[in-house]
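Notes from hallway chat w/ T.B., transcribed later so I don't forget. T.B. wanted the structure written out for a chain they're using in a teaching module, and asked if we could keep both sequence and structure tokens in one place. Agreed to drop them here.
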Amino acid sequence: MGFKTGIVGLPNVGKSTLFNALTRTAAAQAANFPFCTIEPNVGEVSVPDARLQKLAEIAKSKEVIPARMTFVDIAGLVKGAAQGEGLGNQFLANIREVDAIAHVLRCFEDGDVTHVEGRVDPVADAETIETELMLADLESIEKRMQNLVRKIRGGDKEALEQERLLKAAQEALESGRPARTVEVADEDQKTWTMLQLLTSKPVLYVCNVGEDEAADGNEYSARVAEMAEREGAASVVISAKIEEEISQLEPDEAEMFLEELGLKEAGLDRMIRAGYQLLGLQTYFTAGPKEARAWTIRKGTLAPAAAGVIHGDFEKGFIRAETVAYDDYVSLGGEAAARDAGKLRAEGKTYEVKDGDVLHFLHSG
């Protein structure tokens, strides 16, 4: 399981430049005018993980297959999107399809690149987007409530459950808080997700700074970090220009380029790590002579469901999982040695898969 992150923001904040860099394609046309991205561009990227290469070396794997992550570059938003201004309706429909939202915020000064509001204020930009999403959610709640009236009169249990959650979201939104601030019980999570509220999605603020500020950020990105902390959101500092340059280089050259700039890693790595944290994701591995592969699951996933990520039949016919912790696999030199040392465990249906587990599933059928 990967996850899909929608890249959003006001026009001319660097969304398409960042998308091009992340996906190493020129699919999203970066241009200095609003709405240059009309259709949402979708790009898949590999999730960088040094552990995977190490496992492949030990298992002598012919192929190395990293986990994948999807980015969607969504058309620029303007005030009034909830009322259909600009590409409002399309923008809102595209956001419903993603798991998380990456708000790209302009945190750089550049007289050559116009700002749609004529000023640089990333916090105000974030509020503009949030307000439009909140207005769209309120409208959506109103419509849903109207559609539920007949079912509620008939005592429909599911409709009553939906109404209760919709009212909780409405109360938050009318108080100026996004739906993600509503505390939702575990047993309500499925229904809550089905409501598809835009402001219930986790948010990552991406501070697009100038090239000289990529290492430490600036006063703008510091303000965004404070806002993110208040909201329980996440934030990362990235220079879209640097990411675009790195995307054109060979790995060795890219490493040298980053060192020269005083950066330990590419912005993509930071963005993925922040996204993983935001969505509560982790990685497990399978390794053998044929391939070494990384798989993405949510934290707390039990062994049968983790097996199901590989193939649905593995979950249905699950018997047990043989597992070795990554550190044991590497320090002992592989599965056979781990088995001999008593570090390979047989786990059943209630086993909660841990980050870095090297797994082999036994199943019927």
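Follow-up for T.B.: Residues 25-38 have pLDDT under 50 and may be disordered. Might be a good example for the class.
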